[in-house]
Records
---
Amino acid sequence: MGPLAGLRVLELPAIGPVPFAGMLLADLGAEVVRVDKLSESGLAGEFPAGPIGRGRRSLRLDARRPGGAEVVLRLAASSDVLIEGFRPGVAERLGIGPAQALARNPRLIYGRMTGWGQDGPLAPTAGHDITYLAISGLLHGIGPASMPVPPINYVADFGGGALFLVTGVLAALFSLAATGTGQVVDTAMIEGAAYLGSMTRTAAAAGAWSDKRAANRLDGGAPNYRCYECSDGRFVAVGALEPQFWVALLGALGLDDSAPSPYDPAHWDACADLLSATFKTRTRDEWAARFESLDACVAPVLTLEEAPRHPHNVARAAYTSVGDATLAAPAPRFSATPGATGPLTTPGADTEAILAELGYSASELDELRAGGTVG
């Protein structure tokens, strides 16, 4: 199933963007074998057995123990892709870095995921989505005028991290088809996030974007591209940027072209005040019903719980159940080779089968167990 059917991926232990990338590759049909730690706690423990850890075969292994690195290298030798999220230098110290893995399998695509990249002064230090966004320049522009607000961890972890890792791996596979040789893909969340900001940097270079928050067309500054509170305390999202959409918006609100213009920053405050007062006269769902059939680019701001029940999402089967969670269905969609969500993975359930496929005998497996290498 899926366009990546036949692709063999080895996923080493990690949290956040690496498991997300493994989920995406598995949903698109890749055969993913995941190495899980012998013991998990906290956030890390939520991924192997949870919905994001779905669709993989799993073995539990401590690569620091005798024979652990050899197991990983044998897996790498039979894989097309390896993805890992260790801090720089950790994989090398464990004996499973790119040099060792590519020596076993010169065609291997070795995908590395870090926040800062494999080198540079910040490379050895810890970080999270918010810190990578801070240094990328993007965080400064997100939020109200009073302060920056982290956009959860969508931008650096999953957008600039996981999706760029998958893009890099697939590009390297395309290159492999032409050259016959593998390579290392160094994915840094800070750089992927910065790349996502290319449009605003282009606008800034042209003098069309201010570094002030909530002062631009697309950051909540313009009155025709922001959210408005309704009478029930919920919100609608307005994106009526183009004039024809603005005219449709005014008509649905019972206003006319005497309203302050959203295309002149000098009128933004007055325009926003008028729209704010108007939207507060009805509930969110009343406005949603009024705008649903109009080309005015207005939509209700739905909660995580509400979104799967929206008629459009239902018609598209845009959500699916995985374990006890409702998640987005695999995307994008393919006409001939559709992807699919795999079942929940039980960490370590495939340890014996995978080691047998690698040529380990029963006595060798017992020896690995006795040494605390596998579980």
Note: Residues 154-179 form the longest helix (26 residues).
---
Amino acid sequence: MTGERARPGRLGDVAGVVLAAGSSSRLGENKLLVELEGEPLVRRAASTALAAGLAPVIVVLGHEADRVRAALEGLPVTPVENPRHVEGMPSSFRAGIRAVPDRCDALVILLPDMPFVTPAMVAETVDRYRAESRPLVITVYGDTPAPPTLYARSLFPAMLAAREGGREVVREHRAAAAAIRRPAGLLLDVDHPADLERLRREQPGT
């Protein structure tokens, strides 16, 4: 990691890390490039992070990296290619963490296949971190934790060591977390064709 460290006594920036390296094998097509309201899901996630004020916004690429990079054209994001993306999401999770500059005190993980996440939801996650100085801020949909999830820098070593990625860190540090409760209906993870059909029927955020 490079860059200027945050000055003592002040909170540094909060980075956004969009995990966009998967092969979408269960869907049968590259879900990162599926369009919602005329916009590919990967671009929508990156735009959400930017609109929420995350800086920098790092997008971890892997499967069909050139096509995904093209979908991000014109956005002020930092693409980072994960050559080990076939090993699964935890490897991309680690690649994203390593790319976070030292000036950042925390990062927020976002997934392109969760298009119901809004900039306001991400901004509220950051606000809770700044207000409470918790090392972890989780979003809980009904009973299920899912992104956006904020991890403070103090958790980065545990994140890099986690074999299961973010869910392992959330499980082990949940007692120290601030939790934002959301309706279960806002949780949509586009993994299967039925999920894609639901996405196309419903308006995000409703």
Note: The beta strands are 13-20, 35-36, 39-40, 57-61, 78-81, 104-110, 136-141, 144-152, 177-182.
---
Amino acid sequence: MKPSPPGVECRGLTVQFLDRRSQSTRSVIDDLTLSVDGGDIVALLGKSGCGKSTLLRSIAGLQKLDSGEVKIGGKTIEEARASLSFVFQEPALLPWRTALENVCLPLELDPAITRLSSREQAMKLLRTVEFLIGDETKFPPQLSGGMKMRVSLARALVTQPQLLLLDEPFAALDDMLRWRLNELLLSEAKREQRTMIFVTHNIAEAVFLSRRIAIMHQGKIAVWIENPLPSPRTSDLRSTTEFAQMYGQVSKQLSEVAAD
């Protein structure tokens, strides 16, 4: 029986950056509180500079906090680190390793996993993200942007994380590929009963993937929006009246928050 996916709790989170010109600090995250239930899928929306990516990196333990705490399934970030994966905006693949070897990399850190088992798991994940089998021996410079992102996604999923954090991984892809990867991500998250938090500037992507949407402004969460669209969600959903109405609601809220 799989363990229940972990919730995420952020209390009093503050992250300050130094403005080198004025030599003063400013709060990118300002006394923020966030609660995400286990198994929830949350989108973080907001204009550039509002703190979305900084918040995501703080949850992952990649950003030093000036105050506050993050708990994942009731554990500290250090205690829960093995249960989470982070997908960056850029694929960040090692150019001297093949696609398959890049996916294997997280498994090589576990001495209990054999090389053969590692390769089998990696190939399974490459098939899951519809990577072109036969290209796994190619190096990153030989791959298209879409193929690189599939490898990056497979690498994040190969450890079977309970919490998946994504920072605009599909922003540079064409719409057709973006939507296909969205569908794969959603079906995979449902099958694995995974908690997911992702940053995006794309309203349609937020509406399609999320169960809840958090709109951020000046380092805080300004508005929470529940997403009532039914599951399972397929490509047909995007042409429905319900999807258009939800898109309009989120767009309106986003504009109102940005105007404050």
Note: The mean pLDDT is 89.
---
Amino acid sequence: MAYKLDYTEARHYALKSIRDFLTGEGGEWDWDDFTSIPLGFSELRDLQQFCAYLSITYPERGRYCSEEGMELLRGKLKDLENNTPTTRI
């Protein structure tokens, strides 16, 4: 049987995943895991989709995404830290 996270655990996982990605501290597959394994909550699902598509919507050669995309991701992290619902882009 698969372990299901409650909202608090899932939110904490999202916070850590995004922080680690922004600081370069995540493991080799951490970002891929975060963007591809459903957390089961619509707000977090929308955030995961946003993160997964950054490289497509804000492309930059040789990087995951452009600085504009990274700045938007920092804003999403701040919203999540403040427990503010994120808006869809």
Note: The chain has a mean pLDDT of 91.
